[in-house]
Fold these 3 entries.
Entry 1:
Amino acid sequence: MKLEKITNSSVPRSARRYDDACGAAHALDLIGERWALLVIREMMFGPRRFGELRASLPGISANVLSQKLEALEASGVVQRLRLPPPASVQVYDLTDWGREIRPVFGMLGMWAARSPLHDPTLPLSAISMMMSFQTMFRPERAAGVAVTVGFRFGEDRFTARVIDGALQIERGEAGSAEVTVTGAPPALAGLVYGGQSLAALETAGALSVEGDREALVRFAGLFALPPKVNEAGSAAA
């Protein structure tokens, strides 16, 4: 499916600059403003419509989202595209260069997850859940494991495959999945990271499972959060 790129050379750049030659400072010039990184996050698995971005970021207004997309487009991080017929709708996607920031999200997420102030009960988007899998995956636990799991979060569909000690995640539904999970990302996080039992989540109506439930339990055991630090910033005992 070939997408048509939409250009807009009149988009103004942000006037805020650190006036510092350090590459990290320039990175903050480009993506350091409030909401910018989270908007980028929501396009990590491919193009999204404006409404999809807004739904995944409930705390952002339509006006602010428009401003962030325009600024990111002006910086060369985001591009606007038009889906071919019959859809013919405008979507937003990361440029090739914009997508290179993916490893930064993993390192930042792993680092921040060690904070004792991190609250895992806050809202979590489907993209965030899938990216957490990529970050918290433990290859040493996946020896001899081969499993394909489908996820349905509202209209969002994802497929995760574990094979040869590696994890692959893509948008879309796979008919070959051994098990498919339907529910909300926070409930899935409770299963994978919070020690909640699958049976309890099913009884509460937070998750529903079709297929091999044991395959889902094996999959959930392939991930682990990093150890917390104490208030002084040292590794917790």
Note: Confidence is low (pLDDT under 50) at residues 9-14.
Entry 2:
Amino acid sequence: MTDAEAPSAERTASGPTRPAWWVYALIAVGIGALAFAIGRFSTFGSVPTAAGPNAADIGFARDMQVHHTQAIEMAMEIYRKTEDDDVQRMAYDIATSQAGQRGEMFDWLVQWGLPQSSTDPLMAWMTDASGHGGGHGATSESMTDEELRAAMGMASADEIAQLQAATGTEADCLYLALMIRHHEGAIPMAEAVIELGSVPRVLAVAEGIKAGQTAEIDAMRSVQARLGCTG
């Protein structure tokens, strides 16, 4: 089975019957992914939006691409080897929806005539000129890149290596813990650009990320409980 293939329909669940809300949660995530994909492809070849981007819009587009890239990496790692249907479906949904969002953010910067990266510290945009905002930007100048990535909920190189080496339920539980923390780091970024940003499409995507990842956290915690994950 290749990465591009949808989760196997042949695998049968061996655990207890999953609650009906889980099915609806997966459907909602799929609809969200489709909406983001439509939004992404509709921007190609279009004229830039009338509302010009500010520092928050630009910083969010850059930093969330970095954040999403690791989420996709972790999701595809567990997707390839998990034997749990729920973990595989959730990983597939996260990988596909965040790949679509990352592509749209890349296109924003192209349309705005800006490079995909800058020398500014991660999350510096989260505090505006008056010092108001998410709070991370106020101290980002004194933090290392590794510390900033940890503040964004991202996994360390050692944690990624552990995920790659783990198998079975151990791998599933490690993935769920890392991805929950990863999502928890993305939500404040979305909230900051909702407060500080200016481009309507950026604000709409951020609202979708906040709502979608909050729902995914709840779903992943339910799977953790079913699997008996600890820590």
Note: Residues 168-196 form the longest helix (29 residues).
Entry 3:
Amino acid sequence: MTLAPDITELLARARADLRMGVPIVLDSDDGLLVLSVETLGAERLRDLMALPGQADLVLTGRRAETLKARAYDGDVARVALSADATLRWVQALADPADDLTHPMKGPLATRRGREAGLHRMAVALAKSARLLPAVIAVPVTDSTGFAAIHGLTCLDAKTAAPRLGASLVFDQVVSARVPLSVAHDARLHVFRPEDGSEEHYAIEIGRPDRAAPVLARLHSACFTGDLLGSLKCDCGPQLNGALAAMGTEGAGVLLYLNQEGRGIGLANKMRAYALQDQGFDTVEANHRLGFEDDERDFRIGAELLRKLGFGAVRLLTNNPAKIAMMEKQGISVTERVSLKVGENPHNTAYLATKARKSGHLL
């Protein structure tokens, strides 16, 4: 009988703990106590600073670049925290909301030497929890014992690390007919990943021939554009335009992937919007937050297409990266079908940035 959670289930538990402000422990040759900066409270910060190990604020290389802090480990920077570090100062280093009004936050002493693999993994966990990519990390001895004493989730780093970057495994939960205004013979398929993260959906129009390239779109969820009709992006018109094209053709499949804000989550997307209001473009805003230009995982789309029985697509997209990823994952893209819709005075600069910096064909 096996009742204990496996590593996939422990990772899901760790993400939930970080979102609730509860520390987790990464167990390796050198253990690490980790807590999200975004959900950090003053009392827990005091408790962390009272531990015998040196506390570090771990940021991504992108965020460190904005703060003019040296990232000796390349993609992450370990900022040494002094004993008098305050919650407000730590969170200001992680969140760029007041960078322009309070630009002087340093000088910041960043650590070099000693393996940073656990710190890198901690930031990846924060990202996967849709939190700001910033954590407090404190070395601990006897990781499993420390976790047991304090009732904390403990992850074996060597086992967990490969799972963080692994392609997801999905179960098809259910499918049912959902008549749409553009196609009465539509079906909605729900897919649930085994790691407990967001579900993803496929809208199948008609009965596409599995032996022929299907008209397809990989559409990333956009709450503001798809549901609210936001004019800051072109997502809503792209969603509706793709479904209309499939309805006109009589067959197609639209994958609705829950990767809001290019994979950073709705809260971080709103943070990026606030930075855009300060004059930064969409790519610059992501970098200041500590994210890459695009954090989405298009392998999900390829896996769902395979689950549905499709091996070749005519892809409705303006993004060459989607085509490259589909081909890399074994899905043949026989044609790129342009989807230029939704430009308006509020998103002209946004679309220009996507074309100039992200290579979109607009």
Note: The mean pLDDT is 93.
